[in-house]
Amino acid sequence: MQIYFTFEPREDLRKPLVAEFPEVNFVFDVKLREEQLAKADIVFTYGEDLTAENIALANNLQWIFVASAGVEKIPAKAIAERGIFVSNVRGIHKKPMAESVLAHILALKRGLPFIYEQQKKGEWNKKTSLSELNGSTALVIGPGAIGAEIGRILQAFGVYTIGCNRSGQSVESMDETHMIADLHKHLPKADIVISMLPSTDETKYLLTYEHFESMKDTAIFMNFGRGNVVKETELVRALQNKLIGHAVLDVFEVEPLPNESELWKLDNVTISPHFSSHSSRYVERALEIFKPNLKKWVAGERNLENKIDLLRGY
Fold first, then answer.
1. Which residue of 36, 126, 218, 289 shows the fewest CB atoms closer than 10 Å?
2. What sequence ranges are listed for the domain D-isomer specific 2-hydroxyacid dehydrogenase NAD-binding (predicted)?
3. Is residue 312 part of a domain?
């Protein structure tokens, strides 16, 4: 059995992996090479390097392990036609992303951008408005593993949490949960609205200008799921018209965000370059999911954690 990594993990992570599976031939590379892909039974990848053309060359390929929560960039049709098993690292991002979300919220509530700016100017200035996170209400759209972790931490700060998902079924760390179809009814309650939605046909452009009209004019809108949940033009218009207080964006319709985007020019936006999930422990945590699954695979089991339904996109 050959397992092909299309990137090269740190040596302190590679050595224990190889030692734990002596029966496996591991190949580590700095980028995808078709000659190695053609021999691989399993591919461990971030997903962005796979194309329909090179999937066609991978005659032995049975399992693709995607070291990313999103799988929208892999050639789903080509993979599904071959019946190749796909799984991902769903849940791996919950710790760093929850910390990123909390950091942005606290920064805005407690005036950190203002403080940093005054320090640069060398000015002792208290003329800004500060508020508290305690006692506020947060609405999480798409409260999966990451959203539940965000909810858990927010609750520790005395925040009331509302979740909106497809089913309306209760979710851990949400004080109440409703169907996304009823989102309009619950947006006016929220001081903070956090989108954690994946990119699917159902979620594309789900949020419209009318949704922002339903929010408080002091609300913080945060998109940490996928950029195409809302059209940039609609979001820009909402921000220009001050329908909400501030937006914190880690994801965008087009990435990197083009220089000509109107979002760069607005003073009520915080732009993060889609790295809220980054952490020095990222690959370590990915391997913590991969290794137990690999043990099952070697033993002939196919009931693996985080199996992906490519037709649904998650």
1. 126
2. 102-275
3. no
